């Protein structure tokens, strides 16, 4: 694989007529395709990627103990758990993040303050600490009050955990069948604690069953709406279908489907997906398949770091073109393994070979992607990764479409399935508010 990676760089150099030599961080022009420019990062980022397999399964940053901010003259300092010391809070940030009703709407929580009317040389004329916070008088005449908790949280790493709604991640193999995550329908529907438990399990494991669901489309739809509104696509919103190919997609047939994620042809793939088998008559088969994409990614990184890098760097296009008058593609290609640019965390698996279109590599080196993809396919198709389960009326499965791949075995007879999609941001929003509360989430918004 190393010679193939070198080939990617050499091929692109030839296309630019750039002499050979060590790959430079600045060798590619700004307009070079992202998937090509990023090949150089395969070498530059090996240190960062080395910890991905461990990082993806680790618990998120634990909440730090809040330390009371201090006032030194006209300077306000907050504790930073990055440098393990108190750091000065910039005046412009303080003024911009005043929480009074003149600066932030009390109901919508939107800014009312015009940030760009704040004098660039804004200064504090007085800062007085009391038992709950700090009173500040500003050189522009405004007065602010900052609660201790707000200031204490300003420089903590845990803010990213709250903003992204991170949760501990348990990676799994097919042995998850011995103890899969389950909640009861009544608990999820009738209490916020039950709803929080359900969403927490989805965040941790990537899927969760909801048992005791009435075997009707109405009850299933209401269950999904406990999280948020149901996403509408070119196939419609909440779906209730049989294998009649009505929507011009192989999901609407009775053939076997390999493990895949849905809606890779959208710029923003669906966050959650749900299936509820309402009936299966005059036939057999149709077992459901779940594969933990994060588990497979961690193992691929450990076994073949260069294949992992290729799947993390090379953009792949997708499309949905089966219905007349429709050809949906994302605004750009995306890699199979998409990482958070801020911390390198694996954030999303986008894998659907059926919907795959072009690969952003020159033809003379595109074979390297196929080699890496073949290794990935071999992993996610191996028995130790495949969790097979037979859905039954009354049991809904909801899974994270950014992490867990799904498929099914072929079947005979007539099956009726209902379910739907929920947007990723709506899912994470509900989880965050249930876990940290509205105020806890809002406190993490202003800081970075």
Helix/strand layout:
Blueprint: H1 2-16, H2 34-37, H3 41-44, H4 46-49, H5 52-57, E1 70-72, E2 75-80, E3 85-88, H6 91-96, E4 124-129, E5 133-138, E6 143-147, H7 148-152, H8 158-164, E7 182-184, H9 185-190, H10 192-205, E8 207-211, H11 217-225, E9 239-241, E10 257-260, E11 272-281, E12 288-292, H12 293-303, H13 305-313, E13 316-318, E14 337-339, E15 346-349, E16 356-359, H14 367-380, E17 387-389, E18 395-400, E19 404-408, E20 414-422, H15 424-445
Parallel strand pairs: 7-8
Antiparallel strand pairs: 1-2, 2-3, 4-5, 5-6, 8-18, 9-20, 10-19, 11-18, 11-20, 12-17, 12-19, 13-16, 14-15
Helix pairs in contact: 8-15, 10-15, 12-13, 12-14, 13-14
- Main sheet: which strands, in order across? 7-8-18-11-20-9
CATH domain fold name of the largest domain = Double-stranded beta-helix
Question: Which structural class should the secondary elements be placed in?
Answer: alpha+beta
Termini, distance in Å? 38 Å
Content of β-strand? 15-25%
CATH architecture of the largest domain: 4-Layer Sandwich
Question: How helix-rich are the residues, as a percent range?
Answer: 25-40%
Query: Main beta sheet: strand number and arrangement?
Result: 6 strands, mixed
Poorly predicted sequence stretches spanning 5 or more consecutive residues: 11-58, 245-249
